[in-house]
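User: quick one, fold this
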Amino acid sequence: MRGKLEACARRLLDDPQDVEDAVQETFLKLWFIREELDQYDSVEALAVQITKHLCINKLRAFKIHNEEPICDNEFKMESNDTPYSILERKDSVHQLMQIVDGLPKLQQTILKMKHVEGFEVSEIAALTGSTADAIRVSLSRARKKIKDEFLKIQ
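Assistant:
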């Protein structure tokens, strides 16, 4: 299966190191759901799909990183920004990250898959062996918890 995954990743990525990283991450994801793999008609098709998504996300991250003007390697500079407003945004992001770190691991993982890696709810459900409704509920609870905690701080 490794050869097929490498070929899939090479079609999307130029850097051999990125190709290897995508394949390794695919195997890692498969390992985490190893006990649910018998529920899938084709583990190979699932692995190819995961690899494709990882490559696309890497391309998206590269595009975003190289196209947006960045201030302090983290924040987009606005014309009316002051050092105070930039510091305030950094502080807010830091507070949000602390709140996310306090969430249960499953909610953290689902949030990351949805908002960082760009997976659809149905894909997350398939990868975690859960239902789409359960994923939606978990996302909703995580977002509500983040919002409530952040508003308490502010």
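User: anything notable?
Assistant: Helices lie at 2-12, 16-32, 43-67, 83-101, 105-116, 121-128, 132-153.
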